[in-house]
Every structure is written in structure tokens, then in C-alpha cells.
């Protein structure tokens, strides 16, 4: 008799847990069949859990961690906590700060799976649209005194690799609203800024990319709390909002993410359209010494 399909809302936590459990299984060289035999289940059940079609139960996760030889207490705790909270759709930072490092839920992982990526960029150029020279200057500033050529090179390569999403098939819709001050902020000198603005001018003409500019004449607006990114995920996964502060990174699902979507719509309503944005970008580039 075939297994009964469970009713389950596929949350981001469930998808991330499934991906991480699959990755751990493959790292240990264990097949779906071997894992299923250990649990005395059909191997298709393991596949459904890993695809987040069914929820991982706490006991199943514990048994698989034993099979996979994962005995580090911190790692086991984060997997088990995820299994217990797979139904949740609220923000990630409150309950996971002691269990999860900054790479727990992965920003590039979201970018690679999203159907739409919308951003409000209040301080710097969007990461997906930065030139290598601009990105390197930003990374060196973020790393501060700890920056080494090796660490900067590693993060720079990651940023360049992330930009492949702009050329992904199927096409992903990428939209950015950039504050005018970002276009005028001198990052590592006129040559770098000239190259960056020229790059924006090229991107703005691509059919899957929408670049708008919030002009400086707009005073109070919906983006005063800082930059954020919205990820439109394929069904049945929820929209995800991301914001970063000195206090840490936050990933938020619905209904919290809806507040960011509303803020984005309000910003777009007062931003320059694509033609006006292109003209302003070209004008600022010409003003550079």
C-alpha cells in the first residue's frame, strides 16, 4: 500500500533542512537506499524528506545523524532544532543566534533558487551589479584591518560567481531601486566609479533587469530603515525578505516579509523610471573628473 502523503506547508526552514540533510548524506557516501534500509523505510520517503515534500520528524533526523556519523553537539542541535521548527515562517535571527553561524541559511542559496530578486539599495550598489573593482573596494572596507589578499580574493570570487544568476536559464527577474547618493558616493576613486556607472548603464538595457533610482529630492520615504532584498521563491515556498544590520543578518518569511514588499512598492512609486534612471546614471558618470 503506497504511503499516504502528509499535509505540510513547505517552509523555508523545511527546504533548508532537506538540502542540508541531503548534502550531509552525500558527503558521507551513503545512498538513499542505504539510508532507507537503516530506517526500515522506502527509499522514496527519504527523497521526499530531502525535497521538503514531507516534514522531517525529530526522531528521523536523530537516527540519520547517527547513521551519517555527525556527532558534533552544535551541529546536531541545529539540525534537530530545524526539524522541530520546520512549520514556522517567522524570522530566523531570534531563536537561532546561539545555534547558527552566519552561513546557516545561505544568501547565494536563495539567489540561485529565486524566481524574482528585488532590492532597495540605500548605501552601496547591489551586489549582483557590482564590478570586480567596486566589489573589491567594498570587501576590503568590510574586512578592515583583518583583510588579506587571500580573504578578499575568496569573497570577491564568491560575489562574481553569484552574478551568474543574471544570466541564468530560466531567466530570473532582477530589480533594484538605488538611492541617488549611492551613485555619487566615491568608492575607491573616479576610475572605479566610472566603470561601475558604465556597467549599470549596460545592465539597465537587459530585458530581465529593472534598475530605478530614488532621487535625492525625495525626502521622507519607505526605505529609511535601510537596505533590504526580497526573494520571490517558486511555489509552494514563501517570499523571503533579507535585511542586514550591525546586529546580524535577518531572513523573514510571510507575513513579516509582506511589510518589506509594501515598502518596496512605495519606493518604486516615487523612484525614477528606467529611462530617467539611465539618463541620471549617464549624467553622473560624465560629471566625474
Furnish the topology, listing elements before pairings:
Layout: H1 12-27, H2 32-39, H3 43-50, H4 58-67, H5 73-84, H6 93-96, H7 107-113, E1 116-121, H8 132-143, H9 149-162, E2 173-179, H10 180-184, H11 190-203, E3 209-214, E4 228-232, E5 240-245, E6 248-252, H12 256-270, H13 274-287
Parallel strand pairs: 1-2, 2-3
Antiparallel strand pairs: 1-4, 4-5, 5-6
Helix pairs in contact: 2-3, 4-5, 8-9, 11-13
Pfam families: DUF5753 (PF19054), HTH_31 (PF13560)
Protein name: HTH cro/C1-type domain-containing protein
InterPro entries: Cro/C1-type_HTH, DUF5753, Lambda_DNA-bd_dom_sf
Structure overview:
- The chain has 289 residues and is of the alpha/beta class.
- It has two domains: 12-88, 434 Repressor (Amino-terminal Domain), CATH 1.10.260.40; 107-287, Endonuclease, Chain A.
- It is 48% helix and 12% strand.
- The chain has 13 helices and six strands.
- The protein has helices at residues 12-27, 32-39, 43-50, 58-67, 73-84, 93-96, 107-113, 132-143, 149-162, 180-184, 190-203, 256-270, 274-287; strands at 116-121, 173-179, 209-214, 228-232, 240-245, 248-252.
- The chain has a six-stranded mixed beta sheet with strand order 3-2-1-4-5-6.
- Strand 5 (240-245) and strand 6 form a beta hairpin.
- Helix 4 packs antiparallel against helix 5 and helix 8 (132-143) crosses helix 9 (149-162).
- The N and C termini lie far apart (75 Å).
- Residues 1-7 and 93-104 have low confidence and may be disordered.
- Residues 21-51 form the HTH cro/C1-type domain.
- Pfam families: DUF5753, HTH_31.
